[in-house]
Fold DnaA protein.
Amino acid sequence: MGLTANTRDCLRRFLTSRGSIADTNGKPLRPGGTQEVVKDDAAAEMPQEDADDDRRFASTLRNVVGEKRHKAWFEGRVGFDLSSNDTLVVSAGSTLECDCLRKHFKAELKQACRAAGLGARSIEFVVDAAVAPTPARQDRPAEPALKAAPAPKAPPKPSEAPGFLVSDSNREAAKLAELIAAGSPAPSPVVLWGRGGTGKTHLLRAIADGFRSRHRRKRVVRLTAEEFTSGFVEAVHGRTLASFRGRCRGVDLLLIDDIHFLLGKQKTLEELQYTLDTLAAQGADVVLTSDRSPAELRRMSGELLSRLGAGVAVEIAPPDHSLKSRLIERFAQQSGVRLEPAAVRIIASGLIGGAWEIRGVVNKLGLSSRLLDLDICEKAVGRAIDDMNRVSTPSVGVKQIQEAVCSVFGVETGVIKSKRRTKSATEPRMLAMWLSRKYTQSAWSEIGDQFGNRSHSTVISACRRMDELLGSEASVHVAGRRRAICSRPASRSVTLRPMASFRSFAIVPAAGRSCRMGRQKLLLPFAGRPLIEHTLQAWTASAVERVVVVVRHGESTLRSLCEDFPVDVACVESSPDMRATIEAGLDFLQSTWQPSNHDAWLTAPADLPTLSSGLVNTLVDAYEPKDPAVWVPESSGRRGHPVLLPWAAADSVQSLPSGAGLDQLLTEAEVRTLSVSGDDLPRDIDTPEDYRQLEKPMTDRHSIKVNGQTHAVTTSSDRPLLDVLREDLGLTGTKYGCGEGECGACTVLIDGVATRSCITSVEEVADASVETIEGLAGDELHPVQQAFIDQRAMQCGYCVPGQVMNAVGLLREKPHATEAEIVEAMNGNLCRCCNYRNLRAAILQATR
Ligand code: FES
Ligand code: FES
């Protein structure tokens, strides 16, 4: 480029007046000018002694710092101004470079000045864009013209990064990563979130590598949250904040791994927020990873969350079955472990977790086979899976318990947090509170807070009630049917299933609609509801933990009928046979729920109108994970009965020869039958006449014995006994207090045991004898009633019937109960008038 005479004159004058600016080779550099101009014109005009100083200083510096470091840090990228007698001005292209030179070379620069005979000088660092390395400086020497340059290698895509496998569970994230690595327009910031072992860090590294290899001149910084935090803290303490910010903000792509570790570090989060703002203003891309979605990073400030919300969050789901299988094969190959395809299948089906857990299991199997010379048999694989699942299963929280309980009871979580006192709300609430106390570290009040801000005493009361039921061997299924919680005292049998040992699933084939009666059967009303609704109610009220309904693609009516239930819907192609339908359900479960070896699955068609939750529960109760077998109800000749199979049978279904149906499986398997009682016996309906026979009112006739008298009541089976006593039998002495089994106002005696009638269903007292306050006195008052009068144990009197009945129940069991025993027994009967002293005195009097 040519310069005008005037410009050359200005340059000359400038150089003459200010001395020279030379690079480390002694070649002069000038701000704002091109390299050639400065070389040609300015060097020619430099005073000889200045040029000597520059050359001497350059060669001395090379000796002092060493050839290698000189080349890396100074050559072609740093300028020196020696024109002042007491200061050496060092120019570098960025703040970051100046900071580095100051930190690492200040002493050596001073030493070089002294060694070059320039005296002791102070060192000043200045940023000068003109001395930033230009692309031309960075280029390697050109290849000889005749030598053909090798064809540029296509940079790898993130999804092709070594070891990164793509499946449905991470496809979206992998595609987005490719977009960012290619430098194509993408939303920013991107948050890739998912559990540990889903490949977030792997993908982040692949994005960084892909971006670097495509855009060599752009700056990429990849940090862990810990590096970001410690870098920021060090920068604050070392007063190098500008350098830290230059590093994080002067980039084209910033990647930070595991930002959830920043939660609670307020200053660091603020720094991250400002960094995001700066990068957004510059149009730079940001990719972050987290173990939870942005919505769950609640402890971040609203501003930062809104910054994250402006971009896009993509979940990386835990590996699905196919990805797990490929990971297992890869890890096994890497570790030299020989695994049979069956073992791979078992691990992929049974192991909970991601890549880390898979690697752990493969390592364990490899180690035991090498060290102990053991075969990798099915048992060994099962053991390794169980060990790993036990270690890696995350601890449960109150929220998860609420969701699990609500899904079993078929209610929204809002119901158990609401003020509702119906049985359908109180039972799941009570159970969820009890489980929360048992399986989490939460305090009483914390649990109460999460159940609609209830007080700690409400939680204590609910837990006590559950403990009573368990302590007295009441039948309680953690994942079980509703009425089992409030079972009648007379029939107390405990089957509290250990939660982790065995899970049960249902696969409901509803792919099409049966037309056996000439009309589409699934949509016929049965007892006022379509058949499928009836069946789904039975499934969801049973102990089955997860229900998968298999429908055909395009079966919108069936799908919409499923929407009201907490069930999953899997799809099959049109015209499937029963086996194809079951296989679709199995595939769905394998890919979403990851059953383990101990689990079991049931199947029964959705058009089975007489399916009852009792029948399902009977089957589930019969299952023994340690001795798995196929279980069918006794009347096995009928169609459509639920059949329970060990999870291992899923493999057998998939490997049935073509053309063979599920029946063949039952002929080969070890089948056990169990008897079922009349109501639970499933009946098939094939004709309109069958159907009419079955369509009966939902109410039942109940015969109950109250105060020695038998009454016939027609009502629904789960109606509270309290309502029947008060409304149907007119026995209003028993009071309604809380309706949740907490205040004791509704206490009656059932077979002589004090029981809360508000949470006892009429069905549960079918064979029992009920006593209410009306039946207590004969010709004379009962001694407890008399004692209450003597001791003035009544103020408003509302709680008294319940107090009396509870006291009577206690004294029948312990006629000479001590004061401590009285206090303990009466603890759950509340008196809003706080007349406790007189109440206690009355009961003590009755013991004499
Ligand atoms: S009404 Fe309160 S315990 Fe029954
Ligand atoms: S006497 Fe009033 S509630 Fe007990």
